[in-house]
Amino acid sequence: MAAILESKFGAMASAAHLILVDPAQGAEDYGRRRLAELERRWSRFLPASDVSRLNSAPEAWMLVSADTLVLLATMKQAWELTHGRYDPTMLAAILDAGYAASIDDSGRRSRMADRQSRGFTVEDVAVDPAASAVVVPAGVGLDPGGIGKGLAADLVVTELLAGGTAGALLSIGGDLAAAGTPPSPGGWLVAVEDPRAPTSSLLTLSFEGGGIATSSQLSRTWLQDGRHYHHAIDPATGASSTTDLATVTVLARTGWEAEAHATAALLCGGELVMDYLAARELEGIAVALDGTIAMSAGLQGAHVAEGSIA
Predict the structure, then answer these.
(1) Cα(274)–Cα(115) distance, integer angstroms
(2) The pairing of beta strand 4-11 with beta strand 14-21
């Protein structure tokens, strides 16, 4: 019988959940340390992180870690895959809307040296891989958002398996990656939260591996000047999205792809969300603010654990 090790802890301003199957010695500690390292490099709330240093010094070449080079390449790819619906350069809009302080430590605040938009995109962020150097144009503020969590889960799971662990699943605030031997013959089982009743599950997904992510306009909300805001910024308007969807959950090959497509699908709204997923051959489920549920055809079959739909 396989040995199962499960732990829950805080990481990247989120609740993290790690499941290991036949873990290699020190695997749990490695996973925790690696996540903390990636947060130190990618958080927009830590002044010494690579992302914060880039945002504080536009038009200057900055040395960054190999992990950050991977993050930037991933953000560019996600922007292309979603035709700009996922946009990692929305920091100015997020700060203007009032989301400057970390939700778990108000003393940690993100800053941007130049908020004046000049029409640049993430494509205009120049990267010199050989020199491990990056330059951000003036007016561009990087905010990895959920991509950072999804990519972190991908990296940690891959590294844990390379280190001898038979199977691993890592969820960071609902963005997860899983690979290798699952803990049961039914595969990896993942409960999808019901936005209508956050303490309940909408359904349980069964999958062999890859990524799952949920994008929501109900999480990370705040009040400023008497108005309610949420972190799902629509690049088309530069403001909190007015989508009629509460949440979208997507299955994809990797955690970062699931996150990028979940964000893009959320912004599509209820009329177009299933078309967006179908056009990319993705499985997913969308819950509207009025409680209406839409589910892709594939999720009505093998991906949903029997008897799990609420």
Answers:
(1) 35
(2) antiparallel
Amino acid 102: pLDDT: 67
**Distance spanning both ends of the chain, measured CA to CA:** 31
Average pLDDT over residues 61-70: 98
The pLDDT score that the predictor gives to residue 213 is 96
Annotate 60-113 with DSSP letters as a single string: S-EE--HHHHHHHHHHHHHHHHTTTSS-TTBHHHHHHTT--EETTEEEEE---S
Distance (Å) of CA 89 to CA 65, 151, 163, 167: 20, 17, 35, 35
Q: Which domains does the chain have, with CATH numbers?
A: 4-35+147-300 (3.10.520.10), 49-143 (1.10.3980.10)
d(CA 244, CA 167): 37
β-bridge mates for residue 281, sequence order = none
Over 80: is that where the pLDDT of 300 sits?
A: no
**In sequence order, what are the residues at sequence separation of 6 or more whose Cβ sits closer than 8 angstroms to the Cβ of residue 112?**
55, 56, 91, 92, 95, 141
Q: What mean pLDDT, rounded, does the chain reach?
A: 88
CB-based contacts of 33-40 (< 8 A; 24+ apart in sequence) = 34/155, 34/156, 34/159, 35/11, 35/152, 35/156, 35/170, 35/172, 36/11, 37/67, 38/12, 38/67, 38/148, 38/152, 38/155, 38/156, 39/11, 39/12, 39/152
- State pTM to two decimals: 0.90
Q: Which residues pair with 207 in a beta bridge?
A: 188
CA gap 44, 50 in Å, rounded: 9
Q: Give every CB contact of residue 307 below 8 A, 6+ residues apart in sequence.
A: none
Hey, what are 107's tokens? 């003393």
